[in-house]
Amino acid sequence: MSLVAVVPGSFDPVTLGHLDVIARGANLFDELHVVVVHNPDKSAMLPIAQRVSLLEEAVREKGLSESVVVTSWNVGLLVDYCTDVGAKVLLKGIRSQVDVSYETPMAIVNRNLAAVETMFMLPDPAHAHVSSSLVRQVASLGGDVSPYVPPSVRDFFQRHELP
Ligand code: PNS
Questions:
Q1: pLDDT at position 137 over 70
Q2: Is position 14 within any domain?
Q3: pLDDT above 80 for 162
Q4: Atom 3, ligand 1: residue with shortest CA distance
Q5: Given a cut of 90, is residue 9 above it in pLDDT?
Q6: 160 lies in a domain?
Q7: CATH code: domain of residue 43
Q8: Band of the pLDDT at 139, cuts 50, 70, 90?
Q9: CA 108 / ligand 1 centre spacing (Å)
Q10: N or C of the chain: less Cβ packing under 10 Å?
Q11: Do the beta carbons of residue 83 and residue 44 sit within 8 Å?
Q12: What percent of the chain has pLDDT over 70?
């Protein structure tokens, strides 16, 4: 039986911290689905299709396309997607106690809803301070985001004017 896990998130945009979790998750699971989900609690900068395409490019650049599937999901519960693809695990990166507090209720609800377990992975310390919101802020003020994002995202910001 193959082990399938889902890495969900807003990925607005994907950062080196996300990619670190994705790359290490790809070493642990036979199939890893990276799923861009609309988070109603956040106002997004990039449309979902754009986030998916930046993620696809980043996964390709890192040589992970073999076992990593990039997609989006906006038609119901995330655990419904997990059930559809046979994933019993959600994999999430945890940078701090703030992340633990934010993730714990979701992990419990997802387990209650569909027996989907959440596994937390500590980031490489080099990326522990990186977040999409920080990247959005630096990029929108004209700063250099290249230390925090994959080349695909760096190039995207160089080509596009941000709101
Ligand atoms: O990167 P984010 O914004 O912290 O990711 C949060 C996300 C999208 C993973 C979370 O909001 C989510 O799981 N949304 C799916 C909707 C859902 O299934 N909700 C019920 C259980 S938490």
A1: yes
A2: yes
A3: no
A4: 10
A5: yes
A6: no
A7: 3.40.50.620
A8: very high
A9: 12
A10: N
A11: no
A12: 98
89 φ/ψ angles, rounded to the nearest 5 degrees: -130, 135
* Number of domains present in the structure of the chain: 1
Chain centre to alpha carbon of residue 47: 15
Q: Sign of dihedral through CA atoms 44, 50, 56, 59?
A: negative
- Angle of helix 16-28 relative to helix 48-61, nearest 10 degrees? 60
Q: Measured between alpha carbons, how far is residue 56 from residues 22, 25, 93, 127, 153 in Å?
A: 12, 16, 19, 20, 11
Domain holding 88, by residue range, is 4-154
Q: How far, in Å, CA of 163 to CA of 160, rounded?
A: 10
- Residue 9 CA, ligand 1 centroid: distance in Å: 7
Q: Give residue-wise pLDDT tens across range 34-66.
A: 999 999 888 999 999 999 999 999 999 999 988
Q: Is the CB of 109 under 6 A from ligand 1?
A: yes
pLDDT for the residue numbered 163: 61
- Residue 27 domain flag: yes
